[in-house]
Design brief:
It is a single chain. The chain is mainly alpha-helical and about 240 residues long. The protein has one domain. It is built from eight helices and two strands. Helix 3 packs antiparallel against helix 4, helix 3 packs parallel to helix 5 and helix 3 packs antiparallel against helix 8. The radius of gyration is 24 Å and the shape is elongated. The two termini are about 25 Å apart. The N terminus is likely disordered.
Length: about 240
């Protein structure tokens, strides 16, 4: 069924069109107009929401685009998950710390593999190196905070943000559909949330750190989708099937 580009909230009762219209807070005429010949008496009795984001034109998406979206979402999810596990291992002095850091540092390599088919070896490896530095500096910051070395922590944080700016500038150069300013804003937000998460864990506010992780996850998935949309637009010919 096609829906007009507006939002309607209705409780539609089966086999009683008159009652349906009376109970619907919005006039259902726009819905019936764009669906001539539809039998509305056969609708199941339940809550319906017709969202304005729906379009009368079906959206097609290729398997290769779905694969890219899923890959980048997975990599960003792994990025924040292993970052959190690294923070916990460092602050708690867990014996798995070296293994966890090794797994964390595999994330930039996985991003390199995902970007290489589109940007080639040189650009993909440059991103890998920038992203690896992002993670190494983050670990240094957490270690300095745990040791109570405020000067070292401040120095690491300064380099952390400078690295984020480098990544934003780099992404803005290699893809015309990626905004350097947008990436800078998103990466700075990522750093701010991650720092707050680490502080909560360090100070024993575990409930707060878990709540923050939910925000970090949403924000990371936003970056993943910005990344995939930009690649699809730049290399549209690779996503036609």
């Amino acid at each position: 069924m096609l829906c007009p580009i507006r939002r309607f909230f209705c409780n539609i009762q089966p086999y009683n069109p008159g009652l349906s219209i009376k109970r619907c807070p919005s006039n259902i005429f726009p819905i019936t107009t764009v669906n001539p010949g539809s039998n509305f008496n056969c609708l199941y009795s339940r809550y319906r929401s017709y969202d304005e984001s729906y379009s009368t034109i079906p959206t097609k998406i290729s398997k290769s685009e779905v694969a890219l979206i899923n890959t980048l979402r997975m990599l960003w999810e792994q990025h924040i998950a292993w970052t959190r596990m690294t923070i916990v291992s460092i602050l708690a002095g867990l014996p798995d710390i070296n293994l966890v850091i090794d797994r964390l540092l595999r994330n930039p390599i996985d991003f390199e593999k995902a970007l290489k088919p589109f940007y080639g070896d040189r650009i993909a490896s440059q991103f890998r190196d920038l992203f690896k530095s992002h993670l190494i500096i983050a670990a240094e910051l957490v270690k300095a905070a745990k040791a109570g070395n405020n000067q070292a922590a401040a120095n690491a944080e300064k380099r952390w943000y400078a690295n984020a700016d480098e990544i934003a500038n780099f992404l803005g150069r290699i893809n015309p559909y990626w905004s350097q300013k947008d990436w800078q804003t998103m990466l700075h937000e990522h750093l701010k949330l991650t720092k707050s998460e680490a502080i909560d864990i360090l100070t024993g506010n575990y409930a707060g750190s878990i709540k923050l992780y939910d925000e970090i996850e949403k924000q990371a998935l936003k970056m993943a989708d910005v990344m995939s949309k930009g690649i699809v637009k730049q290399f549209l010919e690779k996503f036609t099937r």
